[in-house]
Amino acid sequence: xxxxxxxxxxxxxxxxxxxREASPSAAPPTPPPVKDQGSPSFTKDxxxxxxxxxxxxxxxxxxxxxxxxxxxxxxxxxxxxxxxxDNVLQMVRSGEMPPKEKPRPPAVEAExxxxxxxxxxxxxxxxxxxxxxxxxxxxxxxxxxxxxxRDLIGxxxxxxxxxxxxxxxxxxxxxxxxxxxSPLLLEQYLSAAESILDHAIVNTEAPKPVKNRLSGxxxxxxxxxxxxxxxxxxxxxxxxxxxxxxDAGDYVVRVEAFGQQVGDEPVRAEVRxxxxxxxxxxxxxxxxxxxxxMNVRLQTGTRRVxxxxxxxxxxxxxxxxxxxxxxxVVRSIVLDGPHNAPAPILPExxxxxxxxxxxxxxxxxxxxxxxxxxxGAFRRPVKPVEIERxxxxxxxxxxxxERWENAVRLALxxxxxxxxxxxxxxxxxxxxxxxxxxxxxxxELANRLSYFIWSSMPDDQLFELAAKGxxxxxxxxxxxxxxxxxxxxxxxxxxxxxxxTLRKLATIAPDPKLFPNFDEELRSAxxxxxxxxxxxxxxxxxxIFDLLNSDFSFVNERLARHxxxxxxxxxEFRRVQLPANRGGILTHASILTLTSNxxxxxxxxxxxxxxxxxxxxxxxxxxxxxxxxxxxxxxxGSLRQVMEMHRENAICASCHQRMDPIGFAxxxxxxxxxxxxxxxxxxxxxxxxxxxxxxxxGPADLKTILTGKKDLFSRCLTEKVLTYALGRGVExxxxxxxxxxxxxxxxxxxxxxxxxxxxxxxEPFQMRTATGEKQ
Amino acid sequence: MSKGGRISRRTVLRGVGTMVALPFLEAMLPRGLGxxxxxxxxxxRMAFIYVPIGAHMANWTPSGEGVNFELSPTLLPMAPxxxxxxxxxxLTCDKARPNGDGAGDHARAGGSYLTGCQARKTAxxxxxxxxxxxxxxxxxxxxxxRLPSLELGIERYxxxxxxxxxxxxxxxxxxxxxxxxxxxxxxxxxxxVFERLFSDQPNDPDRANRNQLRASVLDTILEDARGLExxxxxxxxxxxxxxxxxxxxxxxxxxRADKLPPVEVPEGTAKPQxxxxxxxxxxxxxxxxxxxxxxxxxxxxxxxxxxxEGSEIQYRNIGITEGHHECxxxxxxxxxxxxxxxxNKFHVEQFAYLIGKLKSIPEGNGTLLDSCMITYGSAIEDGxxxxxxxxxxxxxxQGGGSLKTGRHxxxxxxxxxxxxWLALLDRMGAHTEKLGDSTGILGGLx
Lengths: 775, 446
Description:
By secondary structure, chain A is of the alpha+beta class.
């Protein structure tokens, strides 16, 4: 979201309040209670609030905005109409309701009621049959498209580089609901398919020899000229030359030339192409030019043919001034070839894609190729009727007398533009009961797995297991194998890159005057550090809490200098023990930089980052019309002092009490994440108190507090990973699955592999709810 | 004149030199379309330039009304074009207001500017706005040109996380909506824009062949998708519908490409190779491409976002190190207000460049600008308070003589900006009764 609530240049602080106080002069509210106070009750904890603040317009027979709330008598009724109540939550929390003209409920009272309402809505009965959710038909995003083509064709073309960026939903760009298609993108898919196949399948026909008369003949400066109807001529040392692209093979070079013969020897010329050269005596005259011929064998590439004049001569006594000079005149240069061209070298992909049993009729051979390719591209066994459909393209090309390879290529092009390739299709089985969950089939499961961990299609091993119906029973082994494969770097880049909003780092532009040290090398080193660190946690199967607090990281010389770590030279990254003031992603320069403004640190952003990405307790969006603060007095002091003065304002306080202290803990790190002892001339005070009363002396303390929030962080990370794995937002009915994963983590030292494994084993990952009745 | 009674524009170009007018002679139009151009008038063109986060209105609104108005400090760069300019005050974009949806004014502004519809508040599932004015024109008139419309932008979108208070990023990144659920992404890379404009080179010998093969591929995948259609339900079906309509659109384009007059890139026009790092260089290059698209009649309809809504671009070349959006929440601070005005003026300078460029290209008896209706504006009035009435709106160009320019017109407050779009659609020949929250066709323009 827009961080509307930022400190601005003059350090005026915008208000950002969940609930506005009735009177702006009221004392700051005490922080809302954070701890769970047992099971919330709708009738006891929520109804009194509604009675006091809502029923006047939305009850007692009145239904302003077509909404009555007093008809909801118990929890069941509320849970049934979740949408209505989600909206109530949002409206009250954002301060839209009650409307301005009505008295404001005190923040503490409202927050307590809202939390209870949330609790009521979050209650899910985990004992019965549950909704497993339903991911929407997903288009491959850019990364998935690139990787899938790489694994399908066997060559890394990165064809998606120019595709438009993918839409992002719930924090990730693999969300089925938001990924959309435009005519422009479909056209790019078509062009990409054509160009991928042009690279993968080469024309096996040797190039036909042609007589190529070179155009664009040039004369070296000062030594001659060109005259229409006559030719290019040289009067002094120099050459006439032209260039052409040549396929490998034997060529005959033919130069049509004559001389203006002056003096007692005939014109002499040298023809040169590449390393080869040959000398000629050109005694021919204009009336009957001679052809100078030379045979060469050329490799593929652009070649220059040049004709040089070897014996310029001037007869000062010649009567005709036009004829004083001996001239070499070239009419034309022809490259005749390639003859005996070598058979083209077939790329590995060509042989693999077009392989078929020998002795087949051409169309049967095409069928074999198309079937195998479609099985891979559609990532499941393809039906004969589908193969026949794409063979029609082969037929069409055959009718146009295209070569076999080209005809097959057209059929493959259709496959790469088909919705079965471009989308991840999951179909309800014919016997599925509307609205009921069913296990996705083994191929669909293989796809879910491979796109989760590799952002790409399943490999042979996954396909084989799926074909035998043994994938589901071998999941653990497969997940472990998949994480070990280098391809799992996709999970680091795409999951961690988006969870930690690392991709944003590319757009951050610290003020060059204030931060002259910041450059592209540092930016990319910051990014790399966090990726390598996350990768280490993943591959070494460490605790997820090591992400927040650990004593090692990865640096190269540039980043080591930034951190003040000594003894690291060169561009290579290596694992190092960190000084006491670093450790964990929250002290990575990457995160510290992308949560700063261009000119200074932004504690609000840093605090919000922790609430959003680490604890999953995002502050509510700012109210729609933040009132103007009263006239500013001149404020002086450190950033912190100034902000604290503002926080005395009740409107700002309730949310900023949650965000700011967390941010202040990191004030020792400047806007590009370097350590500093002072904020300008002011000493830094990294201490603080959280709304739940826990106090800390600095970042190390705060990290200890955060790593103590076992449930919040493991739940947060679980929901993020689940969102990424499912390609849809986590819904209330996923609560049981999340609970189960969190519990398994707790019982297994919070190891990362448990998180992945449990996500893969979870109901929403294994199942899908059939379409039909209301879900 | 060639056998078919048509002459290619290349012939014309050769005759009169390069970078000159491309007169719209009836003979150049394919048969059938000739009827449309009974007069030798140039076709009308429309472009919608979007600037994010409104303007500081005290420095924007001109003093005086009618023809006797004085350009404001922000609009000063338009001085050379004052006679070609309409400044419209008082127009409103009501659907950018919360109307009960809470925070998220930037997303709503982008989603409602050309649609007049309240964007659905969702960070993911089922985003929806409405069909946009440019796309209404593209639907009606798009078959007369190679591209129905062109969508340009400056900021490539990298929306990680949620975009604006629970709204999907898509609302901030485009103003063009083909259907209420099919937003059209903006292209920011000049090279790709150029390729898109001129990839269908009629003198490319491979083109006909490639188009025929592509048409067969499209047939096949359409059949393939239909086979799938019956087996999908709910949201899946919507996604497939999107695919199907894209396939059909491409089919139409390919079919159309053969019937349309050839396009010639004016000599001396080189394909841009990079995305310039500096803002105004990038913006002007995109303006050049927009002009080129109109000049060569590859399209007559375009949108161009000078930045995404809610943009945080730091305009360092004019001495501003804070992000644009950051500045606009100035809370009355004079230093920041000055910066906002500076950014506003800087954008107007780019707009003036575009108008100047259109004016520099002769067409018929006048210039390319004569046939154009280029609007410039934002769906936010004041970025500090997020208000949406009295929007900063400009219209440049005479719309083929249908607009009386050189005036400042003030409308009653709460006049929907969609009324202006209806008025322009009317002049394009795409009369529409209603667009989102419109209440009628805006008067006072001619």
